[in-house]
Amino acid sequence: MSSPETAAPPPAPDGGYVEGRVFLVTTAFLALLVVAAGIAGYVVPAGTFAAVDGGPPVYAPAEAAPVPWWGILAAPILVLGGDSGPQLIVLTLFILLIGGSFSILDRGGVLPTLLRRLAHRFADRRRRFLVVNAATFAVVGSTLGVLEELVPLILLYVPLARRFGWDRKVGMAIPFLSAGFGFAAATFNPFTVGTAQKLAGLPLFSGVGLRAAFLVVTLGLVVGFLLWRTRGAAAPAEPLADEGAPSPPWLGRVLAWMGGCMLLVVAIVAAGTQVEAVQGLAFPLIALAFLAMGVGGGLLAGVGGRRVARLFGRGLWDFAPAILLILLAGSVGHLLTEARVLPTLLAGLADTLSGWSTGAAAIGIYVSQMIINLAVPSGTGQAVLTIPVLAPLGDLIGLSRQTVVLAFQCGDGFSNMLWPTNPLLLIALGLAGVSWREWFRWVLPLQILLAAASVGVLLIAVAIGY
Q: What is the per-residue pLDDT for 333?
């Protein structure tokens, strides 16, 4: 068996999973956003929303509460004590356990062997492989709301894409971008559509017909974009000469073990959509499933207990820089929340939209949700913040609540793949060894097409009284 140092090159060129230059540039950019969020507390009036006699929330000015300079500097630590702290801690532990587990499989020789087999099997059907996988991930994201759980697959698809002659961004996009845009074009996504419809007083998952049609359009644009990005890739970027070698004797039992662990992950995700208690524990349970996959896969491949422990520790070290990125990204929303400026911005938006036509208001809600997502990257959190204000506003201006929810899901979902304050995107970029700037330029044409599609479906919704 290959040694851990030569089994397979890690995704990032510096020997870790978060490439050094990518980390430094992203850290500097996020630090600027954190400072800007802190300054906003001094220039934007504070406010709050409160329900009056059981009615919709009403805005009221509040006492200014700007975060002091030391609180801005310490925001990456103080954020752990805020409302989003538990979620950030769970996400950090999730990524560390995933990193340790995949380090065992990667440097222990399991993933390189699996990649060689996959590359050999689909060498003449690469584009069909791309289409089937992208479509599958998009449908899963749209129906089950699965996105975070697919991040570890980037470590498999990036080197596989390299063997197919594609770049890292394609490898990241197949599982992550496809699922993310399926997540945005939600049909039965319980975390966005389900939450927003509940807050708007709509029947759960009602109006699915138009959303299903929109998913088909979104899927066509995503697949077409990936096919365009992989055009002309005739030769693999890495040598495939060893792909005809005999399979190691442990491969069958390792694949069976990994398949069982993946089925367990699917079961946890499916149960989480039905049982609230499981939903709250989904991340820890999925992390344990991936931990079992890594440790069990390494032992079944004959790596040995002591070496498994050493490779796991090396994986933790490789993924440690991601913790700072997660905390910086979460600090932006934390500072705006502490300074109580988000209610003021939302109230100003509502006042502005009240004088617009229904079509313009629908587009305005869509654009505003994209901007709000810069500070509140959680789809559920954004729904809780905005829908109780915007749904009654829709009643006043003649915009159906169903259309308000549609505008929310488009604005929230598609920008998840764009804004650098989304910790999940930063983690995905780190795993792929891609800078945010490089990713932004690469995905921008698709974002423009999907923005046009979003505007189109919202105008249709207004026209048909959706």
A: 84
